[in-house]
Every structure is written in structure tokens, then in C-alpha cells.
């Protein structure tokens, strides 16, 4: 597994959204879904506001692979479930800070159901 470059981290985390296209059970990329992304140190994370019932999340959790696109960056990635409560607390704070102007949307992103659907996104 490779690491994000500083430029990639800055560009992706600096954008409000990214498109995520996990691999489906047949190995093809699913149609992209636009979601929020946050950064914690040198790592990127995404959550499903629908919790574990989100279709894109289910595909990402099943395949652990896909592609993200953010601006001019397109990367094949690996998805890993994040269960560490300390990391998730920092991610809650990152969501609140980055997306504070979207008050009604932030609350579901830091709720237990979304927290349970947190994935680390790593380039592959």
C-alpha cells in the first residue's frame, strides 16, 4: 500500500466533496456517489450518513476497494473500517469544523450510526 502525497492530502481534504465508486460484487466500479471527506493527520476518512445501510458503504465494506475522484485527482483506493473510538472522536471534530456551515447535515454525520460506517481511504 502506498501513502498519500502531501499535495494529494491537501487537495482532497481541501475540497468539500469527493466522488466514491466502490467495486461491486462483480468487480466493476459502482456509479459514483458524492460524499464528504475529512482528514486526520496523513489519513483520509469518509462516512455514510445513512450508516451501514448506505449502498455505496456496503459495496466499499464488502470489496474494500474502489476509486475516488476529487477535482483533478483520481485514485484507486482501499477502504478499511475504522473502529477506534479516539480516531472517531477526532473525525467528529473534523466534520463539525469543516462542514459547520451545513448545520442540519453535520449532526447525522457525527451520530452513532454514521460513526459506525467510517472508512479509512488509502491509495493502492
Give me the CATH architecture, please. Roll
- Shape field: globular
* Amount of helix: 25-40%
DSSP, total strands: 7
Structural class: alpha+beta
Assembly type of the chains comes to single chain
The amount of beta strand, in percent, is 25-35%
How are the strands of the biggest sheet laid out side by side? Answer: 2-1-5-6-7-4-3
Q: What is the count of DSSP helices, taking H or I runs of 4+ residues?
A: 5
**Briefly, what CATH class?**
Mainly Beta
Largest sheet, described in full? Answer: 7 strands, antiparallel
Radius of gyration: 13 Å
CATH topology title = Pnp Oxidase, Chain A
Q: Give the end-to-end Cα distance, rounded to a whole number of Å.
A: 5 Å
CATH homology superfamily name: Electron Transport, Fmn-binding Protein, Chain A
Q: How many discrete structural domains? A: 1
Give the integer mean of the pLDDT values.
96
- SSE series: HEEEEHEEHHHE
Low-pLDDT segments, ≥5 res: none
Protein name: DUF2255 family protein
Organism: Actinacidiphila acidipaludis
Pfam family, one: DUF2255
Amino acid at each position: 500500500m502506498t501513502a498519500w502525497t502531501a499535495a494529494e492530502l491537501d487537495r482532497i481534504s481541501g475540497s468539500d466533496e469527493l466522488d466514491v465508486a466502490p467495486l461491486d460484487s462483480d468487480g466493476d466500479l459502482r456509479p459514483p456517489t458524492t460524499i464528504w471527506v475529512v482528514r486526520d493527520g496523513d489519513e483520509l476518512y469518509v462516512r455514510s450518513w445513512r450508516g451501514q445501510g448506505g449502498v455505496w458503504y456496503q459495496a466499499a465494506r464488502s470489496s474494500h476497494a474502489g476509486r475516488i475522484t476529487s477535482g483533478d485527482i483520481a485514485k484507486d483506493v482501499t477502504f478499511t473500517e475504522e473502529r477506534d473510538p479516539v480516531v472517531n472522536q477526532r473525525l467528529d471534530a473534523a466534520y463539525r469544523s469543516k462542514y459547520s456551515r451545513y448545520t442540519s447535515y453535520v449532526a447525522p454525520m457525527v451520530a452513532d450510526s454514521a460513526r459506525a460506517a467510517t472508512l479509512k481511504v488509502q491509495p493502492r
